[in-house]
Each structure stands twice: as C-alpha cells, then as structure tokens.
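User: Predict the structure for this protein chain, please.
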Amino acid sequence: MKLITVIFAALAATALLPLYAAGAGLNLSWDDCGSHGTQVQAFACDTNAGQHTMVGSFVAPEGIELMSANEAFMELQVNAPTIPDWWQVRTGACRPASTLTGDWEFTAGPYNCYDYWQGGAIGGWVEDAPQFSFPIYSQRIRGVFALPTGDLRITSVPPGTEVYSFKLSIKNSKSTGLGACIGCEAGACIILTDLNINQPSPYPPRTFIQLPEGRNYVSWQCITGRITNEKNHPEGLCTFPGCPTPVRAQSWGQIKQLYR
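Assistant: Here is the predicted structure, written as structure tokens:
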C-alpha cells in the first residue's frame, strides 16, 4: 500500500499536460493479451487453491520514446444487489488485500505480445471502497508500475505494437468451506477504463489511452457486455445477458438516494 501511494504521488506531480492518444487502444483478457486470451472465466467456487489472471495490454500510439511507467484504472461491476463479500479484497474486508496481486513478469511467457518490462517493473495495486450508483454497484481498482529511474530498459515502443502492460491475479482463498466469503458465484464484469503511459522530460509526462482496441473488459462466471456512449468512451454500464437475474433488495437509505 505504501509503495503504490508513493509512486502515484510522484507521477501526479508530473502530470502537467496530459496527451490523449490517437490510434491506440486497450485490451483486457484472461490468461493472455487481447485476442490470444479469453473473455469469460468460469469458476465452480469449490476450492481455495489457485488463482485467475487478467492480462492488460495496449496498442501503442505514436510518440512513445521513453516509457518509464504505466498507471492502470479498472472498474468492477457486479450482477448483484451489492458488491459481494468475495470481491472485498481490501485490508479489513472479507478477503485479505493479498488476494489481489499484480505481476509484470512475462519473460517466461506468454509470448504473443511485446514484453516491454523484461522482468524489471515494480509497483502495486489497491482496491477502493464500493460505490453505489443506480442501477449497479461498482468498485475501482488502481495500479501503478514502473521501471527504476535510469534503467536501460526504458526505451521507445513502436507505434501499432501490442504491448503487455500487466497481469492482475485474483486468488481463490475463502471461496469454500468454513469462513468462506459469499458471492464468488455472482456474475461480474471488470473493465480496463484507462491506461496512462508515463515518460520523462522532454516527452509528454502522461499519454492517456481510454478507447478499446478489441475488448477492454472481461467477464466472471457468465457472459457480460458493455454499453458505451456515442463516442465509444469507456464510461458506461456492463450488461449481464448470460447471467441469472439477482434479487435486488435495496436498503431504505439506497432508495432515498434515487430521489435526491
């Protein structure tokens, strides 16, 4: 937690004139980059061992001459009346913060996209508290990862190249048995909404990528879809056409929010 806070603060101090990238795009899949991975991850919630890994990648825009870091922003949306306990992976929540682990190691594969980091990136992830926003609950997951200052791996990225950005794994701990957290079986949609590419001076300190290249979201347990606005902006809602309809038992406090 301390490491990611320090890195976010340092990067925020350099974000003077962000540049929105044209001709670039985001991909999110299970197990590998883009079309080499899969959209849906199904889990029987019958073991506490193992994990499930999302892979975030991007198609590079023009002008990436010295990529030193990435900042990734993801949103979890669920087909449930509230964010289930199983997805609560913050410190003090139902599942420990260590349940959500980042990894930037691609030297041992897969090899379908460009491994820019070459095993040298460091960083971390945090999960924010859930937010109620009718008709769904959502939860923000943030990550930042970088090569050390002066690292010889800090170089250019050819435009049009699909680059591995991160792996984000969800462990199966507390899925079954005594002390299990409820909600593992609920349908969920995880969206990679933003990825910022950081470069040192004299290059733009931040290049923002927000549009999908192929598919910037993955599904958990059942097929989900995405509704975007007229500009195909990543903001919007997930749909759950292949998921059982949950019972939405809202509290009186949540109902009052709808009429304010």
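The chain has one domain: 2-257.
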